[in-house]
Predict the 3D structure of the following.
Amino acid sequence: MDRSGRDAGGSDRFGPDDDRRLRRAVVTGGAGFVGSHLCDRLREEGASVVCVDNLLTGSVDNLAARADDPGFVLDRSDVSEEFDVEGPVDLVLHLASPASPHDYARHPIETLRAGAHGTLNALELARRKGARFLLASTSEVYGDPLVHPQVESYWGNVNPVGPRSQYDEAKRFAEALTTAYRTALGVDTVIVRLFNTYGPRMRPTDGRAVPTFITQALAGRPLTVAGDGAQTRSICYVDDTVSGILAAAASGHRGPVNIGNPVELSVLELAEHIRELCSSSSPVEFVERPGDDPTLRRPDIGLARTAFGWQPVVDFDKGLAMTIDWFARLAPGGP
């Protein structure tokens, strides 16, 4: 292993040559927001896909483009229970987990099981199949960071018994387990830490800032900004996040590596910008800030740039406009 985290020799796992072509992938959590976009991209690039999702927070509506697709299979197994996939598998991408604060507050045990048992079962599948394994971890492993921007070498500042601990610690354990399978059992793994992602197929009621502000602005309701809105976020359009995930999977890199957009803005600035793009007159209403809500979020993506040439390319306003258009179509009386 070289200092960048790439396997000695620097070769990528997948490529255009026939003997390195990605033929079949398993995506856990593939009916979710990011997972469904990932399934679509894999199919567009010619890989057959098995989506494993018990639909706890995912939806078959997100997979509408895959209806009657012979190269796509939906398996409604719970990844927290042992599962198997018949036939060869080249790549296992483990995304299964409640991912919004509202979801993991409602499903704390399921969140911990997805991070622990689910990761173990997905790793076991990759081990049996001799497949590359990608863990979709999160910027939440950094907690409320004391280092800014966040670099992969930072160990984080996490409350292990706080209101967000079920998600934060599940992902931290998943990273440790993935590392153990790599070092002890030789499984070919990579860890990506996803920062805030937005785009079509987010649920209007999932509690995250972008869908909340868009649905409120389109309905003319007050935009509910937590605290004074000074806390910052960096949001990445889903197409860019998917490109980063697949670039990491195709590379020989082990991670962890940040995948996110380094453009940083306050939550209040985000609310006001969405209001402007929606041509809304909604007022801002300041509400109580949730416990352990991170004060700062901005990824350092230098490693992703140098290791496998990834960086976000979708313009911020264009990404928000596409997302707003999608939500407008969901609204009663929408186009």
Remarks:
- The chain is about 35% helix and 15% strand.
- The two ends are 53 Å apart (CA to CA).
